[in-house]
């Protein structure tokens, strides 16, 4: 037993050692503008993916949903691998293929054995450069997407956040949903999807990222071999610029008394991705904490809002969020409650915001920073999360920020910074509100707005 204990201690690394021993992210930019980035490790598997600067924010009213439609079509065959041949070839490697579309980025990634990395790169290049877009597959996927849209309507959390974007960024691209409208999905044509690919799937807007037991030189060589199509590079001189999406303090209420629970989201305008205030706001959210009735701890939880929620039965769950985009963001909280608890929960949550602005303590900040450090190190589990960090960082920040630098930024935060930054974004600001369900008890907007400041003598 003593020998086993010694062995375990010898193999364990401290937090500081873990940060210092993370492999360096290597980045190479090809002549056509494609950025190739990787983080090498000794793992027998790897994740290789493409992160693309494209999403619903780049669509207009008529083409909204094209990116989501394209994500579905990407796995349905290419000109070299028609029909289901693409998926079968991925499965023959024992690999896992996935993808997603958001408001500002699209990703396709494959997790496979490290020895199959060159083949995975070739498959990804075929996917984005030679998508078949067969008419029969388009019609088949159209029906599947329409069914998905119906199912999404039953997810009230997603519906609430879509409403929140719609009211916060009304009249702009960020107000539209990622999936698009039913009318758009019904009328999008092959030409619309082909135009979307030709416009956005270009080398300067992409990052080929990889993590795991791979060689960066071999990854670059594979990228040079396969990502060279003439239609893949820009003939112009720059990436199309994004139009600014202005934040508006307003509300959307979708009252339905037949639903059992109310979903409420309240947000103020937050900073864009590259703004250093994000670190401080993430510390503030960690102070607020999160809660669900399935959690243990009861009213002894460290989060004051969670303790109040338990003691007074305020809600079923709540969670703060800090959603960032290129030039703006949404900083707020979302909660689910019984119809008669809405007013009390909103009062307590807004009071917690005011407390962050005026009386945050050092002990709370210390606890929140430790929580963030734990969440940060958890990103090291598995090659897929590391790969996603690499791809997303290069799109958002223009470089991959090492965890050691993130740790230094977190360590620099103190209670005064939290109070100052929260006051900058929260105090006396007009919020955006989205509410769904039995929301009769939700107070008038002006009453909620008046709780965004305290009268202090």
UniProtKB/TrEMBL annotation:
Keyword Endoplasmic reticulum: no
Record's keyword annotation contains Lipoprotein: no
Keywords in alphabetical order: Acetylation, Electron transport, Membrane, Mitochondrion, Mitochondrion inner membrane, Phosphoprotein, Respiratory chain, Transit peptide, Transport
Domain Peptidase M16 C-terminal: 188-371
All copies of domain Peptidase M16 N-terminal, residue ranges: 35-181
Domain of life the protein comes from: Eukaryota
Annotated TM spans: none
Family, as annotated: Belongs to the peptidase M16 family. UQCRC1/QCR1 subfamily.
Record-linked PANTHER family: CYTOCHROME B-C1 COMPLEX SUBUNIT 1, MITOCHONDRIAL, METALLOPROTEASE
Subunit field text: Component of the ubiquinol-cytochrome c oxidoreductase (cytochrome b-c1 complex, complex III, CIII), a multisubunit enzyme composed of 11 subunits. The complex is composed of 3 respiratory subunits cytochrome b, cytochrome c1 and Rieske protein UQCRFS1, 2 core protein subunits UQCRC1/QCR1 and UQCRC2/QCR2, and 6 low-molecular weight protein subunits UQCRH/QCR6, UQCRB/QCR7, UQCRQ/QCR8, UQCR10/QCR9, UQCR11/QCR10 and subunit 9, the cleavage product of Rieske protein UQCRFS1.
Protein name: Cytochrome b-c1 complex subunit 1, mitochondrial
Organism: Brachypodius melanocephalos (black-headed bulbul)
Designated gene of the protein: Uqcrc1
């Amino acid at each position: 037993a003593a020998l086993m204990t010694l062995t375990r201690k010898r193999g364990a690394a401290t937090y500081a050692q873990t940060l210092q021993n993370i492999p360096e992210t290597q980045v190479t930019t090809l002549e056509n503008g494609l950025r190739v980035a990787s983080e090498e490790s000794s793992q027998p598997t790897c994740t290789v993916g493409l992160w693309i600067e494209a999403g619903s924010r780049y669509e207009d009213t008529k083409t909204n949903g094209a990116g989501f439609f394209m994500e579905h079509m990407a796995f349905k065959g290419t000109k070299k691998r028609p029909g289901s041949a693409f998926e079968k070839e991925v499965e023959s490697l024992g690999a896992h293929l996935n993808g997603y579309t958001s408001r500002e980025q699209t990703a396709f990634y494959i997790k496979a054995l490290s020895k199959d990395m060159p083949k995975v790169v070739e498959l990804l290049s075929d996917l984005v450069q030679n998508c078949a877009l067969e008419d029969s597959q388009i019609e088949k996927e159209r029906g599947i997407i329409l069914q998905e849209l119906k199912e999404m309507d039953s997810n009230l959390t997603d519906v609430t956040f879509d409403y929140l974007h719609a009211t916060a960024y009304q009249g702009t691209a960020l107000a539209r949903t990622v999936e698009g409208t039913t009318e758009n999905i019904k009328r999008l044509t092959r030409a619309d999807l082909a135009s979307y690919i030709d416009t956005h799937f270009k080398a300067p807007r992409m990052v080929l990222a990889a993590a795991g037991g791979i060689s960066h030189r071999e990854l670059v060589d594979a990228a040079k071999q396969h990502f060279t199509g003439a239609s893949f590079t820009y003939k112009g001189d720059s990436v199309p610029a994004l139009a600014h999406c202005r934040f508006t303090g307003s509300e959307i209420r979708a009252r339905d008394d037949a639903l059992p629970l109310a979903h409420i989201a309240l947000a103020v305008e937050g900073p864009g991705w590259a703004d250093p205030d994000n670190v401080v706001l993430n510390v503030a959210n960690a102070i607020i904490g999160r809660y669900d009735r399935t959690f243990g701890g009861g009213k002894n939880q460290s989060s004051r809002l969670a303790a109040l929620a338990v003691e007074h039965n305020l809600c079923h769950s709540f969670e703060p969020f800090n959603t960032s985009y290129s030039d703006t963001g949404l900083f707020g909280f979302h909660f689910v409650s019984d119809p008669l608890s809405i007013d009390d929960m909103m009062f307590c949550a807004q009071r917690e915001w005011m407390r962050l602005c005026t009386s945050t303590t050092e002990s709370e900040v210390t606890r929140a920073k430790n929580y963030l450090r734990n969440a940060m190190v958890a990103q090291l589990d598995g090659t897929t999360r590391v790969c996603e960090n690499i791809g997303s960082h290069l799109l958002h920040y223009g470089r991959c920020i090492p965890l050691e630098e993130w740790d230094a930024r977190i360590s620099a935060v103190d209670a005064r910074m939290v109070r100052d930054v929260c006051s900058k974004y929260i105090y006396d600001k007009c919020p955006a509100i989205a509410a769904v369900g039995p929301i009769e008890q939700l107070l008038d907007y002006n009453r909620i707005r008046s709780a965004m400041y305290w009268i202090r003598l």
